[in-house]
Amino acid sequence: MQQSSKPKTRRKYDRTGGPADFKSEIVKMLVSGQTAAYVSKALGVSENLIYRWKNQNQGVKKANGEQNELSLENQQLKD
């Protein structure tokens, strides 16, 4: 058996609106109640990657929330 000499390439998940849109759509699917296993099989994306995107999305939301709190506090201190 002969192995391919081609290096393994990484898949890029850039659907119509770009990779960020594709990732956010997957996270929305999870939030709406679909399982990571179902989304994984339906879209051909590994479950681990789906969970990573979900965690990254939650981290962004948390960071934005903290930033908003800091901005509000700074504004209150200025007044």
TrEMBL record:
<feature type="region of interest" description="Disordered">
    <location>
        <begin position="60"/>
        <end position="79"/>
    </location>
</feature>
<dbReference type="InterPro" id="IPR009057">
    <property type="entry name" value="Homeodomain-like_sf"/>
</dbReference>
<dbReference type="Pfam" id="PF01527">
    <property type="entry name" value="HTH_Tnp_1"/>
</dbReference>
<dbReference type="InterPro" id="IPR002514">
    <property type="entry name" value="Transposase_8"/>
</dbReference>
<protein>
    <submittedName>
        <fullName>Transposase</fullName>
    </submittedName>
</protein>
